[in-house]
Amino acid sequence: MSYANQSQTLNITGQQYQGLLERVLFSTLIGMPCCVFLFINGTMLFTLRSKPVFRETSRYILLYNLLFADTVQLALSQLLYIFASCRIMLTYPVCGVLVMFTKLSNDISPLTLVLMSLERYVAVCYPLRHATIITIRNTGVAIIVVWAISLLNVFTRVLLLLNYPFEDLESLQTTDVCSSTTMLLEPITNNYDKAYTYFLFVSATVAIISSYTGVMVAARSASTDKASAHKARNTLLLHLVQLGLSLLSTMHNSIIQSLSTVLQRLVIVRIKNVFYVFIYILPRCLSSLIYGLRDQTIRPVLLYHLCCRMSLSCSTKG
């Protein structure tokens, strides 16, 4: 019996060591690209404030708003990932604040994508009226509306959380790692979260597809700039991809919960790591890659700053 117990203890210890080693490996492999993209996003944000042409053009102002939300989302997601990897349990108030800021930045991204799609639609379909419709003032008002809607959603979530009887808990310490699922303490909060998410992304999808359809129709017109319409069409398709990946990030908790009933915990952890890379990190980096590489105005300035203000020739070395 003692030999069997010793073997079982060694087996458990080996599994724990393997799990720790795997967590360290995944944390390193995920943390490094995340830090790289945080640097790229930060450089992109600095680039968009470095020249008057970026500060005084509506689509660059919208891009700055999108990049800011994506960068905050990426940083907060990485912070929560580190807490989860290190098995750090937060209190409900601290976890709630982090989750609410994450929700705020996550809501701003799809709404800003809608504004950017509408701006491209007006630029292609109404080129002569673009300067009068898409003004700096109107862009600022639109961004304020986006933030107001997102803040209203966060405020509603806070009110729903305040109805939970926290005073009945033995401790405010969470029993699981901090995540958006941890703060779904009551069914009404979960139902509201699903309803708002579905409404937001259905509305955003309809708006972007409608813009894409309008651009396609305008592209067939003889008076439309074919090159501009083609570029706008590709941009709208990329916005749809970004929106789809963002939608997956909101649905990933439901997917994990469904898989957890049929798969082992270690397999679930590996799947969560893969999901984290492809539906949390990747969508937050697409904006910098899309506009940083495709936009002829941004690209030389971005490369200049990425090369630490050295000669642009460093971008071609290696």
UniProtKB/TrEMBL annotation:
* Positions of the G-protein coupled receptors family 1 profile domain: 40-291
Mind telling me which residue stretches traverse the membrane in this protein?
Answer: 24-48, 60-84, 140-162, 195-215, 236-255, 275-293
State whether keyword Membrane applies.
yes
* Gene Ontology terms, MF aspect: G protein-coupled receptor activity; odorant binding; olfactory receptor activity
Where found in the cell?
Membrane
**Keywords per UniProt:** Membrane, Transmembrane, Transmembrane helix
- Output the PROSITE patterns linked to this UniProt entry: G_PROTEIN_RECEP_F1_2 (PS50262)
Pfam family membership, one:
7tm_1
A GO-annotated cellular component: membrane
**By what name is this protein known?**
Odorant receptor 131-2-like
Query: Native species of this protein?
Result: Lates calcarifer
